[in-house]
Amino acid sequence: MAGEVRLLAEESGTAAASISTLIADIQRTSADAVRVVDEQARGAFERIAIGTGTLRTALDEVGAFATANVASTERMAGASTAATQSVQQLSSTAEQLRGVAARFRAGAGAERGHRHRRGVDRVGAWLSDP
Questions:
Q1: Looking at per-residue confidence, does 120 or 62 come out higher?
Q2: How far is CA 118 from CA 25, 85, 109, 123, in A?
Q3: Could you tell me how far CA 44 lies from the centroid of its own chain?
Q4: How many Å apart are CA 110 and CA 113, to the nearest integer?
Q5: What is the distance, to the nearest Å, from the Cα of residue 104 to the centroid of all Cα atoms in its chain?
Q6: Model confidence pLDDT, tens digit, residues 32-54
Q7: How far is Cα 18 from Cα 104, in angstroms, rounded to an integer?
Q8: What would the DSSP string read from start to end of 39-104?
Q9: CA dihedral 101, 102, 106, 112 (to 10 degrees)
Q10: Residue 1 carries which DSSP code?
C-alpha cells in the first residue's frame, strides 16, 4: 500500500507539473494574443487617425472651393447686372439719337424742298423772261 501511495504521489506530481506547464503555455499564448490584438488595434486606430486627417483636409479644400465659387458667382451676377444696365443705357441713347436724326432729316428735307422751289421759281422766271 505504501508503494501505491508513493506511485500515486509521483503521478500527482507529474500531473501537477504538466498542469503547471499547460497553465504557463496558456498564459504565454494569451499574452501573445493580447499583444497582437493590441498592436493591430493601434495600427487600425493610427490608420483611422490618418484617414480622418486626410478627410478633414479634403473637406477644408472643398469648403474653400465652394466659398470661392460663391464669391465668383456673386461677382458674375454683379457684372451681369452692370452689363444689363449699360445695354439699357446704350439702347436709350440710341433711341434718343434716332429721334434727333429724324428731326434733323425732317428739317433738312424741308430746307431742301424750300431751296428747290426757289430754284424752280428762278428757272421759271429766267425762261419766261424775253
A1: 62
A2: 136, 49, 14, 9
A3: 31
A4: 5
A5: 57
A6: 999 999 999 999 999 999 999 99
A7: 126
A8: HHHHHHHHHHHHHHHHHHHHHHHHHHHHHHHHHHHHHHHHHHHHHHHHHHHHHHHHHHHHHHHHHH
A9: 40
A10: -
What is the spatial distance between Cα 104 and Cα 112, in angstroms, rounded to a whole number?
12
Query: Which cell numbers hold the place of 36?
Result: 497582437
Three cell numbers written together for 120: 424752280
Nearest to 46 by CA among 58, 59, 81, 54: 54
Instruction: Give this prediction's pTM.
Output: 0.45
The DSSP secondary-structure symbol of 26 reads: H
Helix (H, G, I), strand (E, B), or coil: what is residue 12?
helix
Q: What is the pLDDT of residues 95-119, one digit of tens each?
A: 888 888 888 776 655 555 555 555 5
